[in-house]
Amino acid sequence: MKVGFVGLGVMGRGMASQLLKAGHEVWLWNRSPRAIEALVAEGAHAATDPLKLLAEVEVVHSMLANDQAVRQVLLTPPVLEALRGKVHVNHATISIELVRELVKAHVAHQATYVAAPVFGRPDVAAAGRLNMLAAGPAEAVAKVRPLLEVMSAKVWPMGDLPERAHITKIAGNLMLASAIGSMAEASALTRAYGVSAADFLDVMTRTLFAAPAYQGYGKMIAEEHYQPAGFAMALGYKDVGLGLAAASAEQVPMPIAGVLRDALLEAMAAGDGELDWAALAKVAAARAHLQQRGKA
Amino acid sequence: MKVGFVGLGVMGRGMASQLLKAGHEVWLWNRSPRAIEALVAEGAHAATDPLKLLAEVEVVHSMLANDQAVRQVLLTPPVLEALRGKVHVNHATISIELVRELVKAHVAHQATYVAAPVFGRPDVAAAGRLNMLAAGPAEAVAKVRPLLEVMSAKVWPMGDLPERAHITKIAGNLMLASAIGSMAEASALTRAYGVSAADFLDVMTRTLFAAPAYQGYGKMIAEEHYQPAGFAMALGYKDVGLGLAAASAEQVPMPIAGVLRDALLEAMAAGDGELDWAALAKVAAARAHLQQRGKA
Amino acid sequence: MKVGFVGLGVMGRGMASQLLKAGHEVWLWNRSPRAIEALVAEGAHAATDPLKLLAEVEVVHSMLANDQAVRQVLLTPPVLEALRGKVHVNHATISIELVRELVKAHVAHQATYVAAPVFGRPDVAAAGRLNMLAAGPAEAVAKVRPLLEVMSAKVWPMGDLPERAHITKIAGNLMLASAIGSMAEASALTRAYGVSAADFLDVMTRTLFAAPAYQGYGKMIAEEHYQPAGFAMALGYKDVGLGLAAASAEQVPMPIAGVLRDALLEAMAAGDGELDWAALAKVAAARAHLQQRGKA
Amino acid sequence: MKVGFVGLGVMGRGMASQLLKAGHEVWLWNRSPRAIEALVAEGAHAATDPLKLLAEVEVVHSMLANDQAVRQVLLTPPVLEALRGKVHVNHATISIELVRELVKAHVAHQATYVAAPVFGRPDVAAAGRLNMLAAGPAEAVAKVRPLLEVMSAKVWPMGDLPERAHITKIAGNLMLASAIGSMAEASALTRAYGVSAADFLDVMTRTLFAAPAYQGYGKMIAEEHYQPAGFAMALGYKDVGLGLAAASAEQVPMPIAGVLRDALLEAMAAGDGELDWAALAKVAAARAHLQQRGKA
Question: What region holds the 6-phosphogluconate dehydrogenase NADP-binding domain (chains A, B, C, D) (predicted)?
């Protein structure tokens, strides 16, 4: 199939490379063209702007950084016009408010919006082992499903309404933030009693919490190794903010998310916005002044 | 070995039965004697009071309900006297403050205190598959280790200081409470958008959160099935309280634990103290008035 | 002076009436013209649209409901063009983000933006007894100061930068919300022990907390009298949201504000968005299930 | 009247001096006798132990530091025996749990317990201008009321049940902590925007918050002047703890109190336990890293 991919950051590149390997004719556009050089060397086609890309393909994937990028690149009259009759698969984590605007704009232009947000860090994307949620009109989902599957360990159908896939992704990220925040807080406690984060989290992540989320972040906390960031504090703050905004729109109190928001803000105020969000453990330790008190 | 076991609630019975199966001569005492009838039928000996039990054994295990029970049954001058020269293995989750008192009292009576708190619900105890932390003087731990192993999937050594095993257990329970609270809050959000807790948690607990803690409690939340309680709300409140007290004693701010405390109190105020603490999901849904608003 | 006033809600009407009484020639525009009939009967002039109003006056006041109204009515190219050379005094509580946009747009059109947010409920506005903050270019503030004074018990100069007056207003409203939330929580506690909110708050608001904010809201809580709303829950939620957004933009953790956010959301989820925000006391009582337990 | 006073800290000394000035025969006992020298020089009598004091008087006041001191000094069999037939007026802020024990013990010994906790700092006590709550059996309260009045600006009757006066005091202190916490948080926000705490709190404490609690603590925050402490962080932590314990016993969620608990712990972890609890503003500023970022 002739497939487009817009937004070739570190996630997008891994995903697009799987489409290419699967034998599709892949057209790429990225704001900074350098990001696509390697893929072009492997056989992808470079488009000079999104409109030219849309002229070539019947399905376009996007993995843009945030709401603002989606608005600038895709939510413009000419792009919407160029999407007419095509399927747009959005993999990015964006606000529910923007999802609703996008769905309306696609309908108004006889284009089809499929939500396909993903769980997985860049190495997982590069390996084609993402967990991918999928929601949208059944016929469109069926059409793009083979494309989704080449990028994924598993595709999780979430029904007809795109926002249901997006809210699932947003809620899942809140669970991730909570898991990190919980390890941060609990290991600050054990450290105050002389049990290192490494010893504590070793027990926990090999027993009750023997799950990828805990093992990956638990290792970073145990080693106090927060750079380079797989997922930066500032991105975590953005995603917790998407959760709180979605909660607000439907009146759902979320006190744990509120606590995480403050811890993320505190990290950014400390100048740690570029660290991996596992560094929430640094915030918990700082609040307890563990280092100054000579605690493990 | 001649081994005693004091406190034969649903956890203690499962643990003592493993000692019995392993061929030890097991002496039992429980406030209500009915609890030990089945074990006696299988070959255990019944003691009419703790002192008589201590006269028979060289190692005594205890699994009493809370601080108050430990104080009443064990922290008395005659019992401490009877412990002289013996090893006491405490499996219960008690306050750090009481642990410190117990250690002092044991030392003063030439008795040895070994901390061996456990992770696992009653069915796990009955199967001899607990995860057991162990801390205390090395020689004593070495002596009782074979006893610990017959009750456990794995024994995790935590060093010489008993309180380190206890704080690890307490911090671990805070992580469990956080995991439940996080699923509660996140699934309230997805439900407000039409994604059921079952659908949402199915994705999460089969991917990033594919761990026993999440799968067990996630199932209860998905099915809204909170009775009979494996671990009641009121016990969860007690354990979060132990965490907050330990945090207070060493000046460790724990905002997520504070949020959980309030949610547990709210459940108890609602008369739900006897439900499993997975019913934190009921609190999150009530705060968002999901049912009244016809949300999934 | 020829003065305009845009946005004649219940606050704006009281304020404009003071300008009129002081002898100024007052031009009015409001989306719904009925709101200005009484003032026109007292001598004010009605403009059929904001542009016509701006053609008549040298200073224009605005008191619009929220960011969206300000964007629609004032932040448009023709209105900005019509503001050239004039002073715009904004009394409304709006986001810092919008303040910054407004200031830039005014500068770009050689118009002057003066921030003059107010403390005081409608009856205080009608009596010309507001507390009014004022910030903007010194010359412009000096020019409009006589106008501000006729509406105010006191004008509080806050310097040259308009956002400083706005952040002061926003932070003040967070203090109000905290005061209400604190009375709500503390009186839920006393009620659980048989001391009514009335008895408790009577002591507090006549001693340590003998201040208008506590006495006014304390009375509403004591009487459980939340309608008609002087300031509705939904407006409170909006203002706490402005505070959290401002905190986010400058990385200031605000955990009390986060707690208030959740309580306000819970009230709105319960269908109480139209009650006065003093009904935070209803949320605190509901969480403790006081009524079901027969507490005072 | 022959009156005893036990516990002559800085509050107790001021209170006892008023009894003396009013012409009563005042007997004193304090653990450290130096604290009573000045009062003895003014005519008070020194007792060498609490039992000798009780032998002389018909009413005894106590103002001991905390639960532990009350237990050690008063809740002993000989002292309870010596209280038989007498009235004990307790001015201290203690736990509701201990209040209930004291009431039972007094009843068992035909002694009468009157609760008379106070609002006011040491200078207010020395001036005889406290606000004093009073609860207990009506006859006893009537008998001691003249004594209470010489120490107070006003005596607030709270009925027959002593715990109602105590819970009112505890809830009042939570309101004070919230007021400080709210000023701390709100002024951290304004400072991030260039409005000093002094400028911000000047507006607030002269308008909506023109009350003693806000003006006193607001001044300390504005001046960042936290020593010597009128009421130390560690005492504030104790009192918030009494509030949370009372809330727990009657299942009342108190999220704002939980936030304050963490901030107080953070201050103590930082080594600031001896500062006045107005230094909660220091915690809020530290979390936002205002100083490092050069904010006002």
Answer: 2-156
Letter for the amino acid at B89?
V
The domain containing residue A190 runs over which residues? 167-287
Mark yes or no for CB contact C266/A259 under 8 Å. Answer: no
Residues B224 and B276 reside in one and the same domain: yes
Which of A255, A269, A289 lies closest to D270 in CB terms? A289
Whether D259 sits inside 8 A of C262 (CB atoms) is no
CB contact under 8 A, D179 and C174: no
* Residues B167 and B252: beta-carbon distance below 8 Å: no
Give, in order, the Cα–Cα distances in Å from B78 to each of A190, B59, B75, B100, B111. Answer: 34, 17, 9, 19, 13
Question: Which residue, A109, A135, A160, sits at the end of a domain?
Answer: A160
D277 and D186 assigned to the same domain: yes
Instruction: Please indicate, yes or no, whether residues A136 and A104 belong to a single structural domain of this protein.
Output: yes
Assess B186–A contact: CB distance below 8 Å, yes or no.
Answer: yes
C-facing residues of D in 100-139 (CB < 8 A) are 119, 131, 133
Q: Nearest CA of chain D to the CA of B18: how many Å?
A: 38
Of A125, A160, A195, which residue sits at a domain end? A160
B153-206 confidence digits (pLDDT tens) = 999 999 999 999 999 999 999 999 999 999 999 999 999 999 999 999 999 999
Q: Do B208 and A119 touch (CB under 8 A)?
A: yes
pLDDT in tens, B55-72: 999 999 999 999 999 999
Segments in chain C below pLDDT 50: none
The reply to whether A107 and A44 lie within a common domain is yes
Q: What are phi and psi of A263, to 5 degrees?
A: -70, -40
Minimum-distance CB partner of A251 among C253, C259, C269: C269
Report the alpha-carbon angle D27-D30-D34, nearest 5: 100
Nearest to B241 by CA among B265, B272, B276, B214: B265
